[in-house]
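TA notes, week 10

Several of you asked for a full example with nothing omitted. So below is the full record: structure tokens for the whole chain, then the designed sequence directly under it. When grading your own attempts, check the secondary structure regions first.
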């Protein structure tokens, strides 16, 4: 940790875990090798049946462990971790991440210096192909297609500029605690996937910006828990994308972009209908529309509690060039 940093605060690191024995030791070792020492580390276990908790207990006695008996989802794990943490800052971290030693310190320092920002995310590279980018910050299109900037691009310096972005991936992002206190925690209706996209939208709607810090580097295995093409992943990512759309997008935008939204949904339907995950995609649509009334109630409550900064959110939404 830099002794000249004038605003040193405790950072609570929260790691949701479900059967993460394969990666959790590497993740925790990288945390305890950090140049930032004012850390509280909390692992929230979602009813694991492997040896991950035993590994943590035997090798990392300073780690606080919260246990659920069953898998309550990523959002619930994050929220429980925040509730039981004491830091002025919250660092959310996937269990399949490895941090470079300066990662946390650089995120923290940049967040201190950029007082208009309430979250900071770094350059996340592929764990197995370290010259390739996994994410250089989150982005989203008007057809409500979230994506990672730079995903699977070779890192040749094209994302080396510190800048504002739509938001950070909750797999490795640092947040002011006050942000959660103002806009609420992760939405547990999402269960897993896209809950950070929803949170990014709510942050911008309340004029809380996100900062991309390129020299804060982490490495990510990616979908180590469930797999990219699993029933679980296909169901929740596609269902929750609709949750984000109806919960956070301005109705005028939905109307104006309806053609592209439908194009995107048709494209996804065609993609999954040609695989063994067509049924998962179909169920995601049934589940989404069954819960739309509940999502709209949440939208209404949020909008009457906060005067939404539509212009700021609009400025970070991109045209979907894949639909032209």
């Amino acid at each position: 940790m830099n002794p000249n940093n004038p605003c040193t605060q405790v950072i609570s690191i929260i790691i949701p875990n479900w059967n993460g024995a394969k990666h959790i030791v590497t993740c925790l070792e990288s945390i305890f090798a950090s140049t930032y020492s004012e850390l509280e580390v909390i692992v929230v276990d979602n009813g694991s049946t492997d040896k991950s908790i035993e590994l943590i207990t035997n090798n990392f006695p300073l780690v606080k462990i919260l246990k659920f008996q069953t898998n309550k989802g990523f959002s619930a794990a994050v929220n429980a971790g925040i509730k039981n943490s004491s830091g002025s800052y919250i660092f959310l971290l996937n269990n399949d991440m490895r941090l470079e030693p300066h990662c946390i310190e650089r995120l923290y320092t940049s967040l201190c210096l950029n007082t208009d920002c309430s979250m900071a995310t770094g350059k996340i590279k592929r764990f197995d192909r370290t010259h390739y980018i996994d994410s250089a910050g989150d982005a989203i299109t008007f057809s409500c297609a979230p994506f990672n900037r730079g995903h699977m691009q070779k890192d040749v310096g094209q994302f080396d500029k510190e800048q504002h972005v739509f938001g950070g991936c909750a797999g490795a992002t640092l947040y002011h605690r006050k942000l959660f206190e103002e806009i609420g925690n992760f939405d547990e209706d999402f269960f897993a996937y896209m809950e950070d996209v929803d949170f990014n939208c709510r942050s911008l709607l309340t004029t809380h910006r996100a900062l991309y810090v390129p020299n804060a580097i982490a490495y990510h295995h990616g979908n180590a828990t469930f797999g990219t093409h699993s029933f679980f992943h296909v169901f929740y990512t596609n269902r929750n994308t609709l949750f984000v759309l109806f919960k956070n997008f301005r109705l005028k935008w939905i109307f104006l972009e309806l053609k592209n939204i439908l194009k995107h949904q048709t494209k996804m339907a065609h993609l999954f209908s040609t695989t063994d995950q067509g049924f998962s995609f179909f169920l995601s649509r049934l589940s989404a529309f069954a819960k739309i009334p509940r999502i709209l109630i949440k939208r209404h409550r949020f909008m009457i509690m906060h005067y939404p900064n539509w212009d700021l959110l609009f400025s970070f939404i991109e045209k979907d060039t894949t639909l032209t």
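The radius of gyration is 19 Å. Use that as a sanity check on your answer.
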